[in-house]
Structure formats: C-alpha cells, structure tokens
C-alpha cells in the first residue's frame, strides 16, 4: 500500500509538471516554441556527427560533418527570403504588365483585369505579411541558436540532477524521464531519415522540372518534415511560387504530381517502415493529436503533438498500469 502511495505522489508531481508546460505553451508560445525547436535541432545536428563518428571513429571528421550541416541550414535560411522576394516581385510586375490584345468580349476583358488586380493584391499582401513577421522571425532564429547552445551545455547538469524533481521514488522518476526523452530522441532521429529521403526525392524532381533554387527548397522540405502537415504546406507555397514564375501552369501541374507522389510514398512506403519501431502509435491518433493541439495551441501545438502522445503513453505505463 505504501509503495502505491509513493508512486501516486510522484505521478501527481509529473502531472503538475506537464500542466505547467502546457500553461507556458499557451501563455508564451514564442519562447516555448524556440526552446522546442532548439531541442529538435540539437538532436538533428547530432545525427550526422554520431553517424560519422561511429563509422570512422575520427572526431575531426564528425566535427566537419556537423559544421557542414550547420552551413547548409544557414545558407538555406539566408538565401530563402531574397529569392522568394525576387520571385514575388517578378510575378507582381508580370501581372501589372499583362495586356489583353485582340477583339475579346467586354465581360472577358473585365474578368481578366479583375483577376490581375486580385493577383497584385494577394502578392502585395504576402510581401507585407512577410516583411511584418521578418523581425520576429530573425529574433526567433537567434533565440533558437542560443537555445541549442544552452541545451548542449545543460545536458550533463540535468542528467545528474533530474531525480530532485521526484520526492518519493527518485530513481523510478529518473528512469521515466530517461525513457520518455529516449522515445522523443528516437522519433526525431527516425524523422531525420524520413525527411532526408523526401527532401532528396523532392530536390531531384525540382531539378528535373528546372525550378530554380532546388537545393534551398529541398532543405526547406527537409525542415518541414519535422512539422507534420503544416511543414508540407509551408514548404509547398514557395515551390508553387517558383514553379509558376518560371514555367507557368504546366510546371505547377507537374509540381503537384511530384509533391503528391513524394507525400504518398512517405506516408505509405518508407515513412511507416522507418518510424514503426520508434513510435508504435496508430496513424489516426497521431493526426488527431496534431489537429487538436494545433487548433488549441497553434503552431507550437503542432510541434509538441507527438511528444505529448509519447508522454501520455509513457505516463500510462509508469504511473497508471504500475499502480494496478
């Protein structure tokens, strides 16, 4: 009986920590989002480092691979916005310079002119919104970088002192935390491979379609792979923008086939096979959690949806089934 009470007290503490985390997600999503992204990227960047170190047993090669990945990410972020602005400006100019020649019905000319006006308004709206969020985005990127450095420096301290969060059964609680973050780490590492395959296929398709900035868009696809559904939408918008500005409607149609094909291959072929051993969660539960938390907590809710599912499953195993 005493053992059950001890575990139950720690279970209450774990729930309090979890609710506090959700409270901060709700109240300060900018800070929590940057912390979560920093944690994600610290794991993502460790994947090539650990892989090269394991295969070659040479630390300097592992460090080089780490620096190379950081350089690729930095290049993508720096080059993405100027190239996107350039494409939006070209489309804006094209819509303004479009002239209707020939003897067309009045209703058709009016419809085309209205379409030109709508396109110009949409493009200007996109530019204004991007310019409006750019300072916040730059601040968030800097905060993410600081967070990554901070996480790396605090890891050993947390590993030694995590047991102080539990009052009755510290060793049991420490094991719970270790396994939870181990599951999250496995998920992120598995997603690195899934996203890499999708980004490689997408980049190859963009090159074959002669869409500019294929490498930048490919890296954006890789990063978007860590944000289910939302990442696909965010990475697809600039792709369609670049495709339409260079190849018109034909390129847009071929790009649609490419994105749908890669997405379906990821969803039904290599994605489930790679992540099956990591998550072991039903796909509908994952989708439901993403939509529910995304609707309640916004973009940060999408970021934490799968870790929250992993927490619920681990909590159930450690503190609910254990009591029974």
Sheet having the most strands? none
Helix content: over 70%
Low-confidence runs of at least 5 consecutive residues: 1-6
Structural class by sheet pairing and helices:
mainly alpha
* Distance N to C terminus: 11 Å
Strand content: under 5%
Topology pattern, helix = H, strand = E: HHHHHHHHH
- Dominant shape: globular
**What is the overall pLDDT average?**
79
**DSSP summary, beta strand count:** 0
What Rg do the Cα atoms give?
24 Å
Total count of helical runs of at least 4 residues: 9
Please give a structural write-up:
With 324 residues, the protein is an all-alpha fold. Helices cover 87% and strands 0% of the residues. It contains 9 helices and no strands. It is globular.
Give the helices and strands, then pairings.
Blueprint: H1 2-27, H2 29-56, H3 59-97, H4 106-161, H5 170-208, H6 214-224, H7 230-275, H8 283-297, H9 299-320
Helix pairs in contact: 1-2, 1-9, 2-3, 2-4, 2-5, 2-9, 3-4, 3-6, 3-7, 5-6, 5-7, 5-9, 6-7, 8-9
Q: Which descriptors would you attach to this protein?
A:
mainly alpha, 0% strand
Brief rundown of the structure:
This protein has 324 residues and is mainly α. The protein has 9 helices and no strands.
């Amino acid at each position: 009986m005493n053992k059950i009470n001890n575990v139950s007290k720690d279970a209450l503490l774990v729930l309090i920590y979890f609710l506090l985390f959700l409270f901060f997600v709700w109240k300060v999503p900018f800070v929590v989002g940057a912390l979560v992204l920093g944690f994600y990227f610290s794991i993502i960047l460790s994947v090539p480092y650990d892989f090269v170190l394991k295969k070659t047993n040479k630390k300097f090669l592992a460090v080089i691979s780490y620096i190379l990945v950081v350089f690729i990410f930095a290049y993508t972020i720096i080059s993405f916005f100027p190239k996107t602005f350039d494409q939006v400006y070209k489309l804006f100019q094209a819509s303004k310079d479009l002239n209707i020649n020939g003897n067309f019905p009045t209703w058709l000319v009016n419809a085309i002119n209205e379409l030109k006006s709508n396109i110009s308004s949409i493009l200007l709206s996109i530019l204004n919104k991007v310019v409006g969020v750019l300072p916040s985005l730059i601040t968030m990127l800097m905060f993410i970088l600081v967070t990554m450095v901070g996480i790396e420096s605090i890891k050993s301290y947390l590993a030694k002192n995590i047991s102080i969060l539990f009052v009755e059964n510290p060793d049991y609680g420490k094991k719970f935390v270790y396994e939870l973050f181990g599951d999250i780490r496995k998920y992120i590492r598995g997603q690195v491979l899934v996203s890499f395959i999708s980004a490689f296929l997408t980049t190859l398709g963009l090159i074959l379609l002669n869409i500019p900035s294929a490498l930048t868009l490919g890296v954006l696809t890789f990063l978007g792979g860590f944000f289910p559904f939302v990442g696909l939408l965010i990475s697809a918008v600039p792709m369609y923008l670049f495709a339409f500005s260079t190849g018109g409607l034909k390129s847009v149609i071929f790009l649609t086939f490419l994105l749908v094909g890669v997405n379906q291959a990821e969803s039904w072929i290599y994605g489930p096979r790679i992540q099956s051993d990591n998550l072991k969660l039903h796909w509908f539960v994952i989708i439901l959690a993403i939509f529910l938390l995304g609707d309640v907590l916004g973009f940060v809710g999408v970021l934490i949806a799968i870790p929250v599912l992993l927490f619920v499953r681990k909590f159930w195993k450690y503190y609910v089934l254990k009591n029974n």
